[in-house]
Amino acid sequence: MTMRVDSDAPRGEKGQVVFWAIFRNRQGAQTGLAIHRAYKSDPLFFTLTQSNTELTTVMGGRSWSWHVVGITKVALIRYKELDFRHVARSRITRAHLIPRFFTTKKLLAESKPFSINEFFSIWSDADKTVICGPGENTREFTADYLEIDNDDYRLFNSRTIGWRFRVDVEGAFLRSLYQQHFG
Asked: I want to staple 167 with a disulfide (CB 3.0 to 4.6 A). Which of 20, 62, 171, 178 is the partner?
């Protein structure tokens, strides 16, 4: 058995192949989802919390993961205070609109793994995030936020840790957004 590894392509490209844990035999038949299989084989050892950590680790850090769809006013004001630059330890974070744990629980609930298309549909629908200011990223995110048109994933691309912030792209975008909402 070989593991098929795809590039950093967003969902919809290259047949939506899960690059990390869909094993395929030489004929291309799906033989299982590794994390699903591990969880189902021994949920007391490979717990839901462990499975959540593994899925987040493997699926995170791709340009299309942790898809930013909004920003809170508190975060936008904080960026204004930082002259629209991203500064380490600024306590600006991203919060999932649907807690990641809920997504993992849904993906592992069935006795058999979801198909590739179903997996990506569930994952991408639940992978939407909002940029939050200090103290807003709580267990179940409930803060009001300004929607961002980012369906093409051009802004705030995910990195292994954190996200991409370019002063001339994201900074300029936030400066304009601030002007629109706060003058």
From this structure: 171
How far is 178 from 37, CA to CA, in rounded Å?
A: 47
d(CA 159, CA 172) in angstroms, rounded, equals: 20
Kindly state the DSSP code that residue 16 receives in the 8-state scheme.
G
The per-residue pLDDT for range 31-75, each reduced to its tens digit, is 336 788 888 888 888 899 988 888 888 787 778 889 999 999 999
Joined together, the tokens standing for residue 60 give: 């995170």
What is the rounded distance in angstroms from the CA atom of residue 71 to the CA atom of residue 136?
Answer: 11
Query: Which tokens sit at 67?
Result: 């898809």
Give mean pLDDT, residues 99-110. 92
Q: Is 152 exposed, middle or buried (0-12, 13-18, 19+ CB in 10 A)?
A: exposed
pTM of the predicted protein model: 0.79
Distance separating alpha carbons of residues 135 and 75, to the nearest angstrom:
10
What distance in Å separates the CA atoms of residue 67 and residue 87, rounded to the nearest whole number? 20
